[in-house]
Amino acid sequence: MNGSAWGTGGGLSRRLLFTGTFAVATSALTEVATADRRSRPRGPARGTVLRARPATVSLGGRKVATWTYGGTVPGPIIRATAGGMVRARLVNDLPAETTVHWHGIRIDPRMDGAPGYTQAPTKPGRTFDYVFRVPDPGTYFYHSHVGMQNDRGLYGPLVVADPREPLGYDEEFVVLLDDWLDGIDGTPDDALRRLNASTEHDDTLRSDLLGGVTGEVRHPYHLVNGRMAEAPEVFASRPGRTVRFRVINAAADTAYRVALGGHRMTITHTDGFPCAPATVDTFLIGMGERYDFVTRLGAGAFPLVALAEGKQARAFAIVRTTPGARRPPRDVKVPELERRLLAYADLRPRRADALPRPGRTVTVTLGMRPSGNEWTLNDRLAADPLRVRVEKGETIRIVMDNQSPMWHPMHLHGHTFQLRAGERRGVRKDTVNIKPRERLSVDVECDNPGEWMFHCHNLYHQEQGMMGVLGYGQAPPRNRHMSH
Ligand SMILES: [Cu+2]
């Protein structure tokens, strides 16, 4: 796959977008968006087929057996328009149950793909139609939310266009980052078993930026759009073009420090939501986070690098604006990585975006049990989870207090929250990194009733218990949604 496949500039993106379509009955589509209504007032609507199946894929220099959507890693780009609908049919050809989670979308809870919370997982041989409205524009992604499946190839980008896009740019590229071990060091389930069998943490995985130990597992490869550094993704453009990069971290256990050699970057969005433009040289992106940046491209071929923070490895791609330009080698030094780094304090909302004042504060303590392999929220594990009870219409402040020895990218389903720095309101996000000994406050407007996962997006921590619930009203009977 070449770079243009992931940008709006190339013809391939349109082909990818429209491969594998299906028709769904209009009865399910009562909330059809304006754009859809214009083109298809009645009759069947088209959607994407996500056929979850085992496949052998090439990562560039290496072939691996893994689980995929439709035989490729990543899965197809899904594009939608804010206010419009997404329609995707999951066909489960895996030898295991699965779901699709639409990360960051303020979604109908029945479509959230949270097994045991809002839906039963889809059994092998069965299908499930995901049909939902997307209220907010921005950069999102989709992935399996069953066990360790997200550390295989079961993920892909979801880009929601703004019908009134205020940002001026000539073209855009999706940069999907991932750490990879499946089919090389066994499976992610094997890696979790090895982790659980040991009480030691790998002390060589350290980063000051993340306050200490940075990860649980040393993934042998780091990918941009499914490509290893040895056979990198190439984003082809032209000198002088203003390009929007949509960067998504789909990794299981790796934060990346991202930079584009020879360029500064102007951060315009985080987790889909706009921020006041902040010009920096590099930014850190945790698992589940997204950043959009724009930059005006120079002439030549430039390294786009994502340093696997604290792991002595990196993902690597090339941005090329001059066809004959010599490609930088994959170990090229990128001084921007050591220059001005984006901080959360740099992120200001682009427009007045004030949630109602929170009526109360809930403290959630992030902890680790002495085993070193159990991560807790208020001392509870996923098997008997912390449930933060809320009522529809209230706004609460959640104070996350990290008393564990590792950083955690905490993610809330079904909502966006607003970062707080003292009395100053920050940006909207749905995933936020919290370092050891750090306390961080977010405000949540409770406007989407359901039982919503609230968890660490380090997949290993998630599976080692770091999963709670934000639930509306009385708790539903346990595992109601698990019954078939
Ligand atoms: Cu964690």
Secondary structure layout plus pairing:
Layout: H1 11-18, E1 21-24, H2 34-39, E2 45-58, E3 63-69, E4 78-81, E5 85-92, E6 101-103, E7 127-133, E8 138-143, E9 155-161, E10 171-180, H3 188-196, E11 206-207, E12 212-213, E13 221-224, E14 234-236, E15 242-249, E16 256-260, E17 265-270, E18 273-280, E19 283-285, E20 290-296, E21 301-308, E22 313-320, E23 360-368, E24 375-377, E25 387-390, E26 395-402, E27 408-412, E28 417-421, E29 424-429, E30 431-434, E31 439-445, E32 451-456, H4 459-463, E33 467-472
The structure holds copper (II) ion.
Domain Plastocyanin-like: 57-164, 201-312, 372-470
Organism: Nonomuraea salmonea
Pfam families: Cu-oxidase (PF00394), Cu-oxidase_2 (PF07731), Cu-oxidase_3 (PF07732)
Keywords, please?
484 residues, mainly beta, Immunoglobulin-like, six-stranded mixed sheet, 6% helix, globular, disordered N terminus, disordered C terminus, binds copper (II) ion
Proportion of residues in helical segments: under 10%
- Per DSSP, the total helix count is 4
- Please describe the biggest sheet, giving its number of strands, its sense, and whether it closes into a barrel: 6 strands, mixed
The unreliable regions are 1-44, 480-484
Distance linking N and C termini? 40 Å
Q: Give the C-alpha Rg.
A: 21 Å
Give the total of beta strands: 33
Beta-strand content: 35-45%
Protein name: Multicopper oxidase family protein
Organism: Nonomuraea salmonea
Domain Plastocyanin-like: 57-164, 201-312, 372-470
Keywords: Copper, Metal-binding, Oxidoreductase
